[in-house]
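S., here's the first fold you wanted:
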Amino acid sequence: MLVNVDVAFSACTVKAESTNDMHYQCARWLIRWLEFRLSLTNAHAAVVFDIDGTIIDENDVKNLHMYNVVKWCHSRQIGVFYVTARLDTGSNRAQTRHTLRNLDFTCDGLYMMPVETTVDSISICAFKRRSREHIARTHTLFATIGDMWWDVSILPTTELTHRLHSLPSTDCVIFFHPHLEGIASIKLPNT
């Protein structure tokens, strides 16, 4: 069930019996949204996913609902990009690619945080925003999905977004950030 959030833009929380059910509802909603967007234009469409807590859990177990969305995107020639706050060391990149390959998560691009980046919420958010902007140079972004606000939004919060960002991290939220120009944002529950 979707419940409206009292903000000045389109946003709702996803209410379900379990985290797995929230992921299922988000995956269903996302595919419907992508179908709608494709009906308008499919010119170099793309979707951005976070990795940890989004497509895989802390034990490197795949999120089957997000996996199905990734496969659906590939079947419709929608670009799939992973943007992660994992640091981009040679061994970390190799391990990340190995994990993704073993779980059958293929992609059109993998963006990892530069090693020299300060690891805090503002820096992570800025890196993820710059990565989305880089992808948007060659693709039309349809959606961004992650389990943290920095995966799907712009920090620091403003008066406009404060209410949204003050929701519990365990909430699942679908919204259209006013500064992300029609990109669907899905903030999965952070557990």
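And the second, which I think is the more interesting of the pair:
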Amino acid sequence: MSVAKRLAKSVPFAHLLGIRAEDESDDDREKREEDEARRAEWEKKAEDDPDRERREDESDEEYAKRMEKMDEEEEEARRAEDRRARGEGEDGDSEEARAERARCAQIIAFGITSNCIRQAAVFAFDTTMSAKVAIANMKATRADGKQSIHSRMSGVAPINPVGADGGEQLDASSSKSVAAAIIQAAKKARGEA
């Protein structure tokens, strides 16, 4: 390395003395070349588009920011045009994604109305069943389980009815029967019964 290069690197204001390091890194060189290419592109576009011309009172940084913003807007417009050409919506979703959301919505809506939300969620999100098949499955499951717990247990006799020890038979829901059951349980725990 020459003395001038070392001096230029060690003295921050060497460029004012006319000494240049000229030992530019590859990254710096690439960035400078990209900036130059971008500015050349902007100048070329400015010939065709009066909005891209540099304004008299505009600094280099302001001009660069304004051109980058215009480039981003143009790129977004190109992407939106490409999405429309591919049949996607404004939000970028394809027909397939919209159909999947509609399928899930139908299944979940039926699950909410028929009070089987968990099963509907499993069919909607964990399977690829069509909405028609999933709804038919939920209807069949619901038809099999129409009996409530009360109707199924009404015919079952209590295992240990209160008063089985010879006392009077009490209604299981009355407060006397509950109190008698508590007293009986306490006696049994103490070994008296």
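Why I say that: The chain has a mean pLDDT of 75. The helical segments are 3-10, 26-48, 60-86, 95-113, 117-126, 131-144, 149-153, 175-190.

Talk tomorrow,
H.
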